[in-house]
C-alpha cells in the first residue's frame, strides 16, 4: 500500500475528495491517501510541498506557478476546477469603505505572501487602474479566521477570499462585500512533488482516474446541494448558485493558458521570469 498525503482548503470545492476518501476508493487501488486541511490556503500548501509534509495539493493555479518558478520542485498534473474563482472583496461591516475605489492605498489583509489573497490583490489593483507599487500595502492575517477577527478591529482594511466561503460572514454582519474579482484563468489545479511523480506515476494516474470519475458525476449526486449546505454552513440558495457556476475539469492546462497566466504574473511583477511549459506541467 502506497502512503500519500494530499492537501487542500476545507471548502466546498473539495467535497469530491471527501466522498472518494469516505468510500475508500483509493485503497482499492493500493493507495492509502490521507487528506490534510490547509486553512492558510495556497502559501501554506506551497510550504508544505517544499518541506515534503504533503505529496500532492489541490491548489490555486497562479500560486503554484509562482512557487514552481521560485524553486518548488513540483509539477501541475491536471486542472481541478475549470471555472474562475470568484474572489469577494470584503471590508469590516463597521468600516467606512463603500466601494472598491475607496480601498486604493489601504492595507489588504492576506493569508501570507505568495498566497492567492496576496496575488489577487495585484490583479484587482490592475483591474481598477491602481499603481501596484504605490497603491498596495499588506497585512498578514494567516487565514479566514484571522480576517474575521482582524478586520473589525482595524487589522487590515480589506480581505479577498472566495465569495461563497465568506458569504456566511457577510450574512452574519461581520463583513460587507464591496465588489468581486474573478481569476482570469482556471482556478484550482492538482500539483505533485516531482519525486513522487517520478517514482509512482502509475498510482498517481489511478488517483486521477478516481477523482475525475467523481467530479464528472458530482452535480448529479442526489441532494448534493443539501449536503454542501449542511457541511459548509452555507445557505441552500448560495450552494445552488455556486453549483450552477462551477465546472470541474479532467484535462491539464493548455500551453496557451500557461503562457497567458505567466504573461499576467510577469506584467504584475509577481514572477521574475517565464518558465517553459515542461517546467510547470507534466502530462500523465
TrEMBL record:
Keywords, alphabetical: Signal
The UniProt record lists the keyword Hydrolase: no
Places the protein is found: Periplasm
CDD domains on file: PBP2_Ca3427_like
Main location: periplasm
Transmembrane segments: none
Keyword check for Acyltransferase: no
Domain Ca3427-like PBP residue range list: 87-179
Family recorded in the similarity comment: Belongs to the bacterial solute-binding protein SsuA/TauA family.
Protein name (record): Substrate-binding domain-containing protein
Organism ancestry: Bacteria, Pseudomonadati, Bacteroidota, Flavobacteriia, Flavobacteriales
